[in-house]
Predict the structure.
Amino acid sequence: MGSGGWDGLALGLPKVGASRQEGWRLQGWSLEGGRVGGWMLMLDGWRLEGGWRLVALTQAASMQLLGPWYVLAVASREKSFAVEKDIKNVVGVVVTLTPENNLRMLSSQQGLEGCSQSVMELLKRNSGWVFENPSMGVLEFRVLGTNFRDYAIVFTQLEFGDEPFNTVQLYSRRETASQEAMGLFTKWSRGLGFPSRQQAQLQKDFTCARRILR
């Protein structure tokens, strides 16, 4: 494997052809080009660190992904996103774990009539930090990269009505993302084939986010 990018076969995983989006598909994972650096990739209960070493993702480490988050940046293939992205504000999210090990997602964001809050439960798959709720249009919710402290890069595959699309979101513990977090978000978005018109840093209006993140 050269230093300029990832190679799915070098990871011992089968390379599957791209579907609707560009990029690598590795057993359901989309993988961007670029060096590993200091971040890690989570693979069904394991994490791949910068030295290519697979280590078990413990329950204690997984629990660090729970709690309050700001969604500061989004890449999306939703049809209306490119037109509306400049008026979208920061979203607040509180992640908790149910007794059944499912994710409970409380979110607060700007709606047509002011701040709107919603709750969704995502069902845990058999292994790994991967969740879904097809009945609610969430086909996949997967953490792509995180430092387990102040940011997480989240991939979602969604289908609302007759429109299937996917997103990459930057979750941050702080109102301002670190340079490391923004760099990783940009790499994943570009690597998964999102052009600049489908990417946005959300407007820094925290009115709705703070309703649940006080």
